[in-house]
Amino acid sequence: MATSNILLYNFKKTEVTYAHIAGQFFVNPLRTKQRKNFILGELLHLAVGSVSGIPLLYMLKKTGKDHYLSKGLVASMLTWGVLYTGGQKVGLFKKLRLTKTHYSSAWNNTIYGLATAQAIVLIANPTIFTSSNKINQDASKQFTTKNDYSNFVGTNYEYAQSQQLH
Question: Count of domains in the chain?
Fold first, then answer.
């Protein structure tokens, strides 16, 4: 995300980088162009990005890792809505005026969500995720008698019994 943001800034596809935006929490927006304030803003941006991944981890832990890229995309758009759009509405940083800046911000947050979800799934221990396949996990709900199979049209009790033996 940071790499994409800097590339878009260098190609004049956005007004500011996220380091400039985050630097406005500490200094006047005009002073974020200075190297020391830019670095301070970049550190805050990376810290916020790291903390923003924690809810995604818990969401994946609770719901399982099936469709994890979709879940990452939703989480990134929620993060974008809260931090970027909400931050401008509340006045945490100056309002950005160019539409291309808003598009690049949405693009960068899309990259953030997809990359974060992919990294969580690849790096995390697989045992922390619940199984997405809930079928046959509860032994008390499994069929055990002939009467259990009688509710299903076209079932063969003998075939079902032979499948349970294997």
Answer: 1
